[in-house]
Write a structure and sequence with these properties.
By secondary structure, the chain is α/β, with parallel strands linked by helices. The protein is built from 4 helices and 6 strands, in the order E-H-E-H-E-H-E-H-E-E. The two termini are 24 Å apart.
Length: 149
């Protein structure tokens, strides 16, 4: 299984965090990363995204470029638990999946999958990584590629 983990694109400010929308720069950077993924061997079959607007908009741009379906997942918000989410990954039958979410979740999930801890690596907005997991579990993934905006 391989998993692409992507942080949402740059978002503007709003008094309610869940109402923040992508900026034009965020849309352009997301489209660039999606085009790079489209020309790679790492195209996902399905995108799981956070229900927050900026993640849904990011996933929509990626889905359009990759011609890939999107499903919203409640547990992958900024304060989501990477351990609980990894349990969902372990039971999924998807072989190629993309996750579009937020910091600190994407950083903590990545390090949990690679190193077995949750300290978290930094992600820029619209930044995506590819993790290859021959066996799904903590510390079982290898970082294969990064896509930068």
């Amino acid at each position: 299984m391989h998993v692409l983990i992507m942080r949402h694109g740059e978002a503007g400010w709003h008094s309610l965090d869940e109402q923040r929308e992508l900026t034009e720069q965020g849309r352009q950077a997301t489209a660039k990363v999606a085009r790079d993924i489209a020309s790679s061997p790492w195209r996902p079959n399905l995108i799981w995204c956070s229900p927050l607007i900026r993640a849904r908009q990011t996933a929509g741009i990626v889905a359009e470029i990759l011609n890939c379906p999107v499903e919203e997942k409640e547990g992958i918000t900024p304060e989501g638990d990477p351990g609980q989410f990894l349990d969902q990954l372990i039971t999924t039958r998807q072989q190629s999946l993309m996750i579009v979410s937020h910091m600190p979740f994407v950083g903590a999930l990545s390090t949990l999958m690679i190193d077995g801890h949750r300290r978290g690596i930094p992600f820029m907005t619209s930044h995506a990584v590819v993790l290859d997991m021959p066996i799904a579990g903590p510390g079982c993934a290898d970082l294969r590629e990064q896509f930068l905006p």
